[in-house]
Amino acid sequence: MITACPVADLPVGESIRISGDVAIAVFNADGELYAIDDTCSHQDASLSEGWLEGCFVECPLHAASFDLRTGVPTCLPAKKAVRTYPVVVQDDMIYVDTKVREAVA
Questions:
Q1: Residues pairing with 69 in the sheet
Q2: Which of the four, 8, 43, 51, 80, has the lowest number of CB atoms within 10 Å?
């Protein structure tokens, strides 16, 4: 597991980007934490810089939208899902389990 940040550093409606071999975006959507691949599957854009509405993030480049719960795109131009990752909160810290990748639809 990798450390994302303290819980207090990720308020509701915000996101952070974790750099690594594969960049990961962590979102606080209405108090629920989600982690997905940070790069839009349509074109090279950071989803952590997108617009969050409920459990959906809109890519800042071409407005593709992804469901944070599943990684599945909800509209064009994206056609391919992004991976999702389990998020764990322990001792007021947010961790992302990068070894357990959820299946991509």
A1: none
A2: 8
- The span from the CA of 2 to the CA of 29, in Å, is 20
Confidence of residue 21 (pLDDT cuts 50, 70, 90): confident
Spell out the SS3 assignment of the chain. Answer: CEEEEEHHHCCCCCEEEECCCCCEEEEEECCEEEEEECECCCCCCEHHHCEEECCEEECCCCCCEEECCCCCECCCCCCCCCCEECEEEECCEEEECCCCCCCCC
What amino acid is encoded at 53 in this protein? E
| Residue labelled with tokens 């994302």 | 4
* Structural domains in the chain (count): 1
105 within domain boundaries: no
Q: Please report whether residue 50 resides in a domain.
A: yes
Asked if 50 and 65 touch (Cβ cutoff 8 Å), the reply is no
pLDDT of 23-51, one tens digit each? 999 999 999 999 999 999 999 899 999 99
